[in-house]
Hints:
This is Competence protein ComGC. The chain is mainly alpha-helical.
Amino acid sequence: MVTTIFIIGLLMMLVLPNMNRIREFAQQKQRSALIHTLQTQVDLFRGEFPQQKVTLPDLKSKGYLTTEQLKQLEEQGVKLVGGRIEKNVP
């Protein structure tokens, strides 16, 4: 019984740190994909409305971004300044 508990504990010690690294890696990839999506949507908006200033609310109102995407961008501190994407790094 003690041996079984020891083996389970040892396996948990090996698995949990790896899961945390995988979770962080997935979050980084998600952030990167969201920034890439925003840049693509800004480029598309500029192509359709070349004379209009690009803002996040305009992107949402014209259907280029969803409410969820806008919320994620705000949570991650991403801003659109002068048509350029800026990310606040904590």
